[in-house]
C-alpha cells in the first residue's frame, strides 16, 4: 500500500471501501468468530455471564456501531487490549485466501479517475492483515482506520470519522466521495453526508425495508454497472 498522504494537485474523487464483510463474504464466518471473541472479552473483563455479555455487546453495537466504543465509554477498557484479544486473535490466515476475482475488479478501476481507499472501524493491524491475505493490499492508496490508541474513539458512523477519511485520502470535496459498506448504519450516515453511497447486501440477507442509501448491490461486481465511468474501458481490460 502506498503511503498515506494527498498530493496538492490530485483532484481525483475517492472510492472508500469498507473491509470486513465487504471485501470478503459474510459466509467466511469471520463475523461469528469475532462475536465469540468479543463475548468472551465481555465475560472476562466485565465479569458477566454469557447471556448478559451477549446482550450488552449487541446494545453497544447498535448504539455506537462498534462494541469497543461502548467498552471505552462505560468501562474504561483499553481499546488496544481489546484489539489484542479480539481482532488480532482471529485465525484469519486459516480463513482468508487471495481472491483473484476481487483483485481483477479492483485492478480494473481506472486509478487516473478515482483513488481507491480503505475505510474501516478496525484497528490498522487487522485492516492491513485482511487485505494482505486477500492479495489486494497494493491496490489501495491508503487506509483510514479507527485509532484504538486514542480515546474517545472516532469510528463510523460518526461524521468525524468520515471527515477524517476525507482529509486523509485528500478528497477534493465531500461530493467527490464514493463509499461501499455492508453496514446499514454506516451507509445511512455516509449518504446523509452527501457521499455517493452503496450498501452491500449479500444474497440471502434480507433487503432492508428502508434503503440505507441511494445504491444497493448484492456483489461488488455491480459497482461496474453503477459507476462505469470509474472503470477502465472494456478494450483496455482485454488488452
Ligand atoms: Mg463491514
From TrEMBL:
Listed InterPro entries: HAD-like_sf, HAD-SF_hydro_IA, HAD_sf, Pyr-5-nucltdase, SSM1_domain
Listed transmembrane segments: none
Coiled coil: none
GO biological process, one term: nucleotide catabolic process
Molecular-function annotations in GO: nucleotidase activity
Organism superkingdom: Eukaryota
PANTHER family reported in the protein's UniProt record: PHOSPHATE METABOLISM PROTEIN 8-RELATED
Protein name according to UniProt: Pyrimidine 5'-nucleotidase
Source organism per UniProt: Penicillium cinerascens
